[in-house]
Write a structure and sequence with these properties.
Helix content: over 70%
Distance between the termini: 32 Å
Structural class: mainly alpha
Radius of gyration: 18 Å
Number of strands: 0
Strand content: under 5%
C-alpha cells in the first residue's frame, strides 16, 4: 500500500480540500453532489422497481447499477465536465493489475470485517437471502452471466458515483477525511441491511476503496479493486458450499 507520490515536488499540494483548478475545476459542488446522491437513492428505488417488475431480477441487478450513474453523469455532462480527467480514469495495464492485486487484499479485509460483525451482531438475514439468490441464479448460464455482469458493473458504476463523483466533489472543498467519511456513509446507506452487518461492512469497504482512490489518484484502480473483490467472492461462494 505504501507508494511514493507520482506528483512532482514542485506541484501544488492537494490538502485540506484544495484542488488544482485545471484538474477538477470545482465543477461539482459538495452540496450539489450530496443532493444528487439523495435523488439517486429514490430514483434507483423507483426505476429499479419498474425494471424488476417488467424484466425480472436478472435485469434489475444489472439495470440497478446503470441507473445509479444516470443522475451524476447527467449533471456532469450538463456542466460540461471533462469526466475522464475529473474522475481520474487511467486505462493503463499497470492500474488494472494493481486493482486486481488490491482486490484480493480487499477480499481478505472484507472477510475479517464481516466475520467479526457476524460474531458480534449475529447472522444477517439479508446477506443470507442475497447469497442464496445469487447461488440459485448461477445454476443457469443466463443467470450466472447476469450475476457476473452485475458484480462487474458494481465496481465500475459504484466507484464512479461514490468515489469519482461524491468523494471528489466533497474533497474539492473539504478535507480528505471528511470526503472519505461522507462518501463511505453514502456507500453504506445504499447497501442497507436491517441487521446492520452489510451496512457496516460496506462502510468499512467504502473507507478502504476511498483511500485507494485517493492514494493512487485513479478511478481505474478503485473500480478494478471493487470488481475483483466481488468476482472473487462470487467464485468462492460457488466453489465452496
Amino acid at each position: 500500500m505504501l507508494q511514493k507520490s507520482f506528483l512532482h515536488k514542485n506541484a501544488p499540494k492537494c490538502e485540506k480540500g484544495t484542488r488544482l483548478t485545471e484538474e477538477n475545476g470545482n465543477a461539482v459542488s459538495p452540496i450539489a453532489a450530496i443532493l444528487i446522491i439523495v435523488a439517486t437513492f429514490f430514483f434507483t428505488l423507483f426505476a429499479g422497481g419498474i425494471v424488476l417488475s417488467m424484466f425480472g431480477y436478472g435485469a434489475s441487478i444489472i439495470g440497478g447499477e446503470i441507473l445509479l450513474t444516470l443522475l451524476p453523469l447527467a449533471y456532469m455532462v450538463q456542466r460540461r465536465v471533462n469526466i475522464p480527467k475529473y474522475v481520474k480514469i487511467d486505462a493503463s495495464s499497470k492500474s488494472i493489475i494493481l486493482g486486481i492485486v488490491l482486490g484480493v487484499c480487499a477480499l481478505f479485509a472484507n472477510v475479517v470485517v464481516t466475520t467479526s460483525l457476524v460474531l458480534i451482531l449475529g447472522e444477517s438475514e439479508a446477506i443470507q437471502q442475497t447469497n442464496k439468490l445469487i447461488v440459485d441464479m448461477s445454476s443457469s448460464m443466463e443467470g450466472l452471466a447476469a450475476v457476473i455482469i452485475s458484480l462487474s458493473l458494481a465496481g465500475i458504476c459504484e466507484e464512479f458515483v461514490f468515489r469519482g463523483f461524491l468523494q471528489n466533489a466533497i474533497n474539492s472543498r473539504y478535507s480528505f477525511k471528511t470526503a472519505l467519511i461522507v462518501s463511505s456513509l453514502a456507500f453504506a446507506f445504499f447497501h442497507f441491511d436491517p441487521e446492520a452487518v452489510y451496512m457496516i461492512s460496506a462502510f468499512a469497504m467504502g473507507l478502504l476503496l476511498g483511500y485507494i482512490y485517493h492514494h493512487w489518484r485513479s478511478y481505474t484502480v478503485a473500480a478494478v479493486t471493487h470488481a475483483s473483490l466481488n468476482l472473487i467472492a462470487l467464485a468462492l461462494t460457488l466453489l465452496i458450499p
